[in-house]
Amino acid sequence: MNRPIPAWRRRITTTLANIRANPTGRIALKIGVGLLGAIVVAVGIVAIPLPGPGWGIVIVGLAIWAIEFAWARHLLHFTRTYVQAWTRWIMRQPWPLRSLLGLLCFVFVSAVVWLSIRLTTGIDLIQVGLDILDRF
Predict the structure, then answer these.
(1) Interior CA angle at 41 toward 38 and 43, to 5°?
(2) Cα distances (angstroms) measured from residue 7 to each of 15, 94, 121
(3) Could you count the other beta carbons within 10 Å of the beta carbon of residue 41?
(4) What are the sequence ranges of the domains in the chain?
(5) Mean confidence (pLDDT) of the chain
(6) Higher pLDDT, 52 or 69
């Protein structure tokens, strides 16, 4: 069953086709998409060790690159396929295992945040926390 293509998607496809019809527009589009995608991916990579959607930002940058680059479309398809498979697998597991996996992810992200702050600023968050507890 084919779903109808939304009007906004048809407009974007038509606009991109018009830009690509001109050799200068095609080159400008490749450069613009390449630069914008690179900026978004770079911001995402910087945000990965921090709390928040670092990987999500990287995937958005990859989606931007996928507008013009076949390798990015393939990588985005691969990523989407395996993230959906992982999500389906997790949802089929009993809640104790899901809780354990969630705890392991929390510990991993906490360790990455601690290490990032330790290496970039020299601040040991564990020691700071222990010093605060000692005051009570």
Answers:
(1) 110
(2) 12, 42, 49
(3) 19
(4) 1-92, 94-136
(5) 89
(6) 69
Q: Which candidate, 44, 74, 46, places its Cα nearest to that of 59?
A: 44
Q: In which band, very low, low, confident or very high, does the pLDDT at 120 lie, cut at 50, 70 and 90?
A: confident
Amino acid letter at 35?
Answer: L
Q: Which two tokens stand for residue 8?
A: 């906004």
Rounded mean pLDDT, 5-20:
91
User: Could you please report the per-residue DSSP string of 51-109?
Assistant: SS-HHHHHHHHHHHHHTT-HHHHHHHHHHHHHHHHHHHHHHHS-HHHHHHHHHHHHHHH
| pLDDT at position 54 over 90 | no
